[in-house]
Amino acid sequence: MKSFDDILKDEKRRQKALAKLARKTGSIKRQGNNIGIFGLASTGKSTMVNSLLGKTVAETGVGETTKEITEYHGMGYTLWDTPGLDAKPNIPILLPCLLIDPVLRANLIQYTIKENLNLIRLFDDLGLGYDIVVNKFDDIDEDEQSQFQYQIQREIELYQLKQKKNIFFLSAKYPKMFPDWLQMVNYLTEECLDYEDSNTSSSSDTDDDN
């Protein structure tokens, strides 16, 4: 039986191999604005898709309901719902979504950064930016929410997350319950508009050159 140190070494070798595979694969160019949603099983990824689109398009329920990467089209953007991860995420399955360019990456967690740390570390290793979305914030008692937010912020500092952009505390099931939902939607919208503006400018410059 392997020792704990051997298991850790195997995991580090595995992570390096996956990062190497991702670098060799390279980014996948896609038209439009793309938002990838990642996280463990039952963290509310499909519920978030439905709430962002304002209608039920993704199946939800107890356990993992998303079996493969699925794209859903919104107004000016595409949402990519991914299969739920476990402690050792099957990164090769996620590569098509990980490497879409351009893309915003939302990492859903529920109670701790550590639950999705392997994938977050891979993003850091690859230099890919991401946002952390603490979903199901309504499950935390109201008088404990401030302490919980502090705990998550401390974890971010502890793990020295390199590519983290934003952190949102919200409930995809009850979007109006917390102000971070609107802030996240505004952020995603602004990022999409910024991309469209830059893409339009690039096209105009090319046309002028011709």
Describe the structure.
The protein is an alpha/beta fold and 210 residues long. Helix content is 45%, strand content 20%. The protein has a single domain (10-201), classed as Rossmann fold. The chain has a six-stranded mixed sheet, sandwiched between helices. Strand 5, helix 5 (145-159) and strand 6 (164-169) form a beta-alpha-beta unit. The longest helix is centred in the last third of the chain and has 31 residues, at 179-209. It is globular. It starts with a helix and ends with a helix. The model has no long low-confidence stretch (mean pLDDT 77).
Task: Indicate the topology.
Elements: H1 4-25, E1 28-39, H2 45-53, E2 70-73, E3 78-81, H3 91-98, E4 100-109, H4 117-126, E5 130-134, H5 145-159, E6 164-169, H6 179-209
Parallel strand pairs: 1-3, 1-4, 4-5, 5-6
Antiparallel strand pairs: 2-3
Key terms:
6 helices, Rossmann fold, globular, 6 strands, alpha/beta
Q: Structural class, from secondary structure content?
A: alpha/beta
CATH topology: Rossmann fold
- End-to-end CA span: 67 Å
CATH class: Alpha Beta
CATH superfamily, please? P-loop containing nucleotide triphosphate hydrolases
Q: Which outline best applies?
A: globular
CATH architecture: 3-Layer(aba) Sandwich
How do the strands line up in the largest sheet?
2-3-1-4-5-6
Question: Compute the gyration radius: what is it?
Answer: 18 Å
Beta percentage is: 15-25%
The biggest beta sheet reads: 6 strands, mixed
Query: How much helix is in the residues?
Result: 40-55%
Which runs of at least 5 residues are low in confidence (pLDDT < 50)? none
Number of domains: 1
Total helix count? 6
